[in-house]
Amino acid sequence: MPWPSRKRDKGAVADKKEPDAKIAKTEEETPDKEEEEKSTKPPAGSSKSGWKNWKKTKESDSSGEESKITYCHWLLKSEPESRLEKGVDVKFSIDDLKAQPNQTTFWDGVRNYQARNFLRAMKLGQQAFFYHSNCKEPGIVGIVKIVKEAYPDHTQFDQKDPHYDSSSRKENPKWSMVDVQFVRMTKRFIPLSEIKAHHLAHKADGGPLKNMMLFTRQRLSIQPLTQEEFDFVLSLEEEKPH
């Protein structure tokens, strides 16, 4: 029996500021706003030095010409803590994924049109960060890969599912899903607060995370990443947390 729909209803909610914070409205109902976590400045030099060190490793590969932005990696948000939605627990952590047959499952329950379009743009073999959201300490915990491209999300037709959509028709389904497979855990947990410190520094110095959608469209549960964004965030797993 497959896991219940667990990723999102109409979209990602803002990550909690603290454990008892109220759940925000969905992204379709509420315009984007600044991340709810406190914006603490990074320790002096920490973020910029991380960017400079990363930049040095990339300079030899750069032609100096600015290329067109393309998205080839992804960030997928899921909730690791129990939360009932229409009587169904939508919890789904990376450990739950690892427990699935062949460590593979469908990524269902997306009910935001932009997030759905990102799902439909995913290509076989592309990698994504698995991001724990709406919990005490949100952040990146692992890496998954796309093993089946977009196809109709069956939960939209299931009246017992919290993500049932009575307006969707089988001859023209509104919602899609993909299959993902566990690749590995990140070498360490990469918290949102650390990624945000780099984002704020990069906004000032032109680093790779300056336009990262995790902060510009943070309510989306499916987010694209450029190669530079993916590589920089991945490089953080090699650093000691500040």
Any chance you could write out the topology, listing elements then pairs?
Blueprint: H1 46-59, E1 71-78, E2 84-85, E3 88-89, H2 94-98, E4 104-107, H3 113-121, E5 127-132, E6 139-152, E7 176-191, H4 192-205, H5 213-216, E8 222-226, H6 227-235
Parallel strand pairs: 1-5
Antiparallel strand pairs: 1-8, 2-3, 4-7, 5-6, 6-7
Helix pairs in contact: 1-4
In sequence order, what are the helices and strands, one letter per element?
A: HEEEHEHEEEHHEH
CATH class of the domain at 71-237: Alpha Beta
Task: Supply the number of helical segments.
Answer: 6
Distance between the termini: 42 Å
Mean pLDDT metric: 81
What share of residues are in beta strands? Answer: 15-25%
Shape: globular
Poorly predicted regions are: 1-5, 8-12, 17-49, 62-67
Number of strands: 8
Record the strand order, biggest sheet. Answer: 4-7-6-5-1-8
User: If classified by CATH, what would the architecture of the domain at 71-237 be?
Assistant: Roll
CATH topology of the domain at 71-237: ph1033 like fold
Structural class: alpha+beta
Helix content: 10-25%
Q: How would you name the CATH homologous superfamily of the domain at 71-237?
A: ph1033 like domains
What key phrases describe this protein's structure?
single chain; alpha+beta; ph1033 like fold; six-stranded mixed beta sheet; two-stranded antiparallel sheet; 8 strands; 24% strand; disordered N terminus
